[in-house]
Every structure is written in C-alpha cells, then in structure tokens.
Amino acid sequence: MIIGNNNVNIGSYSFIGSNSIVYFDILPYMSILFNSCSLNCFNLIGLKKKYVDKYVILRLKKIYKLILNSNFSIKEIIFLLLSKKYFSFESLLIVNFLLKYKKKYIFLKNT
Description:
Radius of gyration: 13 Å
Structural class: alpha/beta
Helix content: 25-40%
Number of helices: 4
Number of strands: 5
Largest sheet: 3 strands, mixed
Strand order of the largest sheet: 2-4-5
Shape: globular
Distance between the termini: 30 Å
C-alpha cells in the first residue's frame, strides 16, 4: 500500500490491496483495489473471514448502495444513515467517521 497523502485516514474493517495508491480517506468497511478510483464495494471477504453475521452484511450492502449509487451530499447521507430505515451500529460508525474527518471523499459531493 502506498499512501499518496500524509493526511489519509483509514476506517475500521477496511481492506486495501497491495500496490494500491491511496489519496483519499477510506470509509469503514471499504475495499480498495489497485487505485483510489476503484471505490466500488465494501470489504465483503474480510467481513466473512471475521464471521460477521449475514444480517450485518446485508445492512452494510444496503448502506453502501445508498452511499455509492447516489448523488446525495455528505450532510444528506448522514441524515439518511441516522434515519430509522438505515440506523444501526454500522451506520453510526460510518457517520462518526464522516463527522470526525470532514474531508472530501472521492465518491461523495462535499456540501
């Protein structure tokens, strides 16, 4: 792994493949392969190896589908993750990460 910037934060349970160049913060449960532009999934293999419950994995799929396939701003995503539909321990971990580091993310509008 090559960190392209000294101010990169990596979320818990994230996976970064070898020879990956990381320029942006990595959200919890994310999977990065080859370069920062391939932010398209969460760390499903790592979660299965840690024997994470299948219902937790289904919640995470739903959360990351919302995050990666939407044009919502960070504020809107935080609001949705705290709503009844998405609320869980995993969503709180992601919201905490977003609030703590308040930086631009490659896949989110920063408004």
